[in-house]
Write a structure and sequence with these properties.
Distance between the termini of chain B: 25 Å
Strand content of chain B: 5-15%
Order of helices and strands of chain B: EEHHEEH
Structural class of chain B: alpha+beta
Distance between the termini of chain A: 71 Å
Oligomer: heterodimer
Radius of gyration of chain B: 13 Å
Number of helices of chain B: 3
Shape of chain B: globular
Shape of chain A: rod-shaped
Largest sheet of chain A: none
């Protein structure tokens, strides 16, 4: 097959084969390789659990941010009703930043959900292959001569080994993604700790700094739009009469 | 011929598709070498679609080894480039 296939596919194949060669110790008995297969299955389960844990953490963060969005919206309305447009603007800036974070968290949760499903499928596939290997091993041992059996079983072991390498790769990629998201979740927690998503009544002395960050992070035109919309809503409610002629 | 899409599964493809597969593979390699993100996405998707479309999923109890292994579908261009410089998914 050499020379006829493109490099993109052959590179990976060569590397996986190399990985298998390295892992394959001729002195190992096939029963021992079956034990190793079972161990990898356990590892995959741990990997899935890790993905689930990270997903739950992100979901909890998302729930918190969702509450902040509602709270900040209410506060913007209250501030505007009381005629404090500056405060309303700050609340809306925070709301927008919080919503942006929330969208990002939601898509990360979805991505982890997909990774979780993929790992569960990989685990089941590997489990089936291992079970099939075990059966084949017993049948071949019973029916074939020692030499024939050795060849047949070692071919099957190579097939299972390839599956193991592939599940290992899938798990590594899933955990890398999980790791990236964990770093991001930590960053969001730091913002939370700095009061960025908090309600305005809790604003402390760090206010100026946070406001400056907000101004950098949020799009002021979007905030303007929302502020205008809110004014119009409140205006049509009758409490602030100055917007009778609409937004034009 | 058995082709594995890494992290996805194995497909059995009919004989005689080798040239087509090869052409698709070459397009991906060209896109990676040109550092062309959109060409990479498009050509890699075409390669994957070809395998999924022309192949039949290998039964989970089948223990045969793959003849070819295609990188994971979520491989980024940066990762693909690293793959060619020997620094990629799997160590050289």
């Amino acid at each position: 097959m050499a020379g006829t296939s493109g490099r993109f596919t052959t590179i990976i194949k060569a590397k996986i084969s190399k990985l298998l060669d390295r892992a394959e110790d001729p002195g190992e008995t096939l029963d021992y390789s079956y034990q190793k297969q079972l161990e990898l299955l356990q590892n995959v389960k741990k990997g899935i659990a890790e993905v689930v844990t990270s997903k739950k953490r992100l979901q909890m963060q998302a729930d918190k941010l969702q509450q902040s969005v509602v709270k900040l919206d209410t506060q913007a309305r209250q501030a505007l009703s009381a005629g404090n447009e500056d405060l309303a603007r700050v609340a809306l800036e925070r709301k927008q930043l919080t919503q942006t974070e929330l969208q990002s968290l939601d898509s990360q949760v979805q991505e982890l959900e997909a990774e979780q499903q993929k790992l569960i499928e990989s685990e089941q596939k590997l489990r089936t292959k291992i079970e099939s290997f075990r059966t084949k091993k017993e049948v071949v041992k019973a029916q074939y001569s020692a030499a024939e059996a050795r060849v047949q079983i070692s071919e099957a072991a190579t097939g299972v080994g390839e599956e193991m390498a592939d599940v290992g790769l899938a798990m590594q990629r899933a955990l890398d993604k999980t790791e990236d998201m964990r770093a991001r979740a930590n960053a969001v927690e730091e913002l939370e700790a700095a009061g960025t998503f908090e309600d305005l009544t809790a604003l402390g002395s760090g206010q100026d700094d946070i406001d400056r960050q907000l101004a950098e992070l949020t799009s002021s035109s979007q905030v303007d739009d929302e502020l205008a919309k809110m004014k119009a809503e409140l205006g049509s409610g009758g409490s602030a009469g100055q917007i009778e002629e609409g937004q034009a | 011929m058995i082709v594995r899409i890494a992290t996805e599964g194995q497909y059995e493809l009919p004989d005689g598709i080798h040239d087509e597969l090869n052409q698709l593979d070459n397009r991906v390699v060209a896109a990676v070498e040109a550092d062309d993100e959109s060409a990479y996405r498009e050509s890699f998707a075409a390669l994957l679609d070809f395998i999924r479309g022309r192949g039949t999923v290998l039964d989970d109890t089948d223990l045969r080894e793959s003849d070819l292994i295609v990188p994971p579908p979520d491989l980024t261009l940066v990762e693909a480039e690293a793959e060619f410089t020997g620094d990629g998914l799997l160590p050289d």
